[in-house]
Design goal:
single chain, 443 residues, alpha+beta, eight-stranded mixed β-sheet, globular
């Protein structure tokens, strides 16, 4: 994969064109240099030096844990979802440089080395726990540079289809597939506060406390006001009781039933005449206590009549917020952003690619995907200039990370010549300037 002396390839449509392949000097992922700059400014991957435990006992260890972690995270951010591409990427100049080889000459880790790192080293119980702690520390460092008055937490489950005999894979009737059923927790800035890989056949709310409680405790210790949103899967008495005990305001969708519908019966009569183009929306609130609840709670109902539909749409939200009914509904509807962030993880990073046989290995790989997702999200929300602040994670990957570049070595420096197409020099400079302002003040 080096710069071997091979004859250029020719194209018949234009005899003047010659194609040369320079795998060790050309990269399609030069934008990873910006991610590495952000990593260094916030001190992210260097935390792994104290967090991860080395299990290799040989005397000739060539690739240390921090560069291996960087290679795992950065390659996923660039769209390489597993270790199959590591052999080729080991010679990529951008990945070699960002992984930590300062001279730019030493190859990054091979496929075999990366596979052992992800499926053996990281699957040790202490390292699995350390990956969770690393993600918490990463989010905390990003939040230290974020202006906010309250934290909004969105908890949601997702589907990770499997296509083999992976441990823990099972048929899920809701998704109608063989899958894993991971659980994700996001804050309102799109940071993934936590994730948990679960077997495919568990309930959507299964083990919710393992993901939610550490995050709620952390923000409570900081004295931060918290809000929580969840769909009907989390309409469980133990969830309400936990959130109320922690003084967390919540809005959770309630499954409809006859008693609830009885409270809004007067709103379910179709308005007379032709419905207007804009939906007719009505709200109602009442106190309700299900048989499994320890106390009555406030419920907000929304009924919506739409032109061209025979029946209305309605829904119920249980809440301890003191917002007016319309405000409760608008607040709850914001949880749709969590679904969008899960989709971004799927489509930009393909974090559903969990193809190891052992369940614990897939746990480690999901944790790596979450770290890669958060690094990309930090880059998006902390470093992008105003003109492109609305880029999706996929846009960040395709337009910023996927910059073509050529490495030129000089006696005392490495120079990357970057393509100026999707991202001009001024925009990239703006990214670096914003990253520079995140660095701790000297002294």
């Amino acid at each position: 994969m080096g710069d071997g002396e091979k004859a250029p390839l020719r194209l018949r449509f234009n005899p003047k064109i010659r194609l040369e392949f320079r795998g060790a000097t050309i990269t399609s992922d030069a934008g990873l240099l910006a991610a590495r700059e952000l990593d260094q400014a916030l001190g992210l991957t260097r935390l792994a030096a104290d967090a991860l435990q080395e299990s290799r006992t040989g005397q000739n260890v060539q690739h240390h844990l921090v560069p291996l972690l960087r290679q795992s995270v950065y390659s996923r951010l660039a769209g390489y979802e597993d270790t199959n591409d590591a052999e080729r990427l080991a010679h990529d100049p951008a990945l070699r440089t960002t992984a930590g080889w300062r001279d730019g000459d030493r190859p990054a880790a091979s496929t075999n080395t990366m596979s052992r790192f992800e499926t053996e080293t990281l699957t040790a119980p202490e390292n699995l726990e350390a990956l969770t702690g690393l993600n918490t520390a990463w989010v905390s460092r990003a939040m230290a540079h974020t202006c906010y008055r309250r934290i909004i937490l969105d908890l949601d489950s997702s589907e990770s289809p499997v296509h083999g005999e992976q441990e823990g894979a099972a048929y899920n009737g809701h998704f109608q597939s063989m899958c894993y059923h991971p659980l994700f927790l996001f804050n309102q800035f799109g940071d993934c506060e936590g994730a948990l890989l679960r077997p495919g056949n568990v309930h959507s709310a299964d083990r919710w406390r393992e993901v939610l409680e550490p995050v709620v405790d952390r923000y409570r210790r900081q004295g931060t006001r918290q809000r929580f949103r969840g769909d009907a899967a989390f309409a469980k008495p133990e969830v309400y009781q936990f959130l109320e005990a922690q003084e967390v305001g919540y809005a959770i969708r309630l499954p409809s039933n006859g008693i609830l519908e009885g409270h809004i019966a007067y709103l379910l009569t179709r308005p007379q005449g032709e419905l207007p183009a804009r939906p007719i929306v009505r709200y109602h609130e009442f106190t309700y206590q299900a048989g499994s609840w320890d106390r009555p709670r406030r419920v907000v109902a929304k009924v919506e009549w739409r032109r061209g539909e025979l029946l209305p749409r309605w829904g119920f939200i249980v809440t301890n917020l003191d917002y007016p009914p319309k405000g409760v509904t608008r607040f709850y509807n914001g949880r749709g952003t969590a679904e969008q962030w899960i989709k971004e993880g799927k489509y930009a990073l393909n974090w559903t690619r969990l193809s190891c046989h052992r369940f614990v290995a897939n746990q480690a790989r999901l944790a790596l995907f979450v770290l890669a997702y958060n690094l990309g999200n930090f880059l998006r929300r902390l470093a992008l200039p105003e003109a492109v602040k609305d880029w999706s994670l996929r846009s960040v990957q395709v337009r910023l990370i996927k910059i073509g570049g050529r490495l030129v070595r000089h006696a005392r420096r490495l120079v990357f010549h970057l393509a100026e197409v999707a991202v001009p020099r001024e925009l990239f400079q703006g990214v670096l300037e914003r990253i520079g302002r995140l660095r701790p003040a000297p002294g």
